[in-house]
Amino acid sequence: MADSETEATEAPTIFDKIVKKEIPSTVVYEDDKVLAFRDIAPQAPTHILIIPKVKDGLSGLSKAEERHVEILGYLLYIAKLVAKQEGLGDGFRIVINDGNDAGQSVYHLHVHLLGGRQMNWPPG
């Protein structure tokens, strides 16, 4: 990995600042492991980002290691809880963008929870 890529993926991100409450967000769920908040540029009536509070090298899914198995599963479980809390009983979509070609813009692993409308396939 080039030095500039390493810096981009390991440097503090806007999400780190949101976790530290340095930048305001509309939080819909929080516990000691994860934070879920509304996306500022929603792509669906409900668009929530779910992030681990501690990045621990997880700048993207492709950086996951065996030590991350618990938090990866927990992110999906929380996505299910938040979807229920948001009234998305008719369905929802989970998206994890990984890397530039996938449209990842913040290099801190995050799960997009989208719902409130009919989703199209293929997605993009």
TrEMBL record:
GO terms for molecular function: adenylylsulfatase activity. CDD domains: PKCI_related. Residues 14-124 form the HIT domain. This is Scavenger mRNA decapping enzyme C-term binding. A motif (Histidine triad motif) lies at residues 108-112. It comes from the Eukaryota. The active site is at 110 (tele-amp-histidine intermediate).
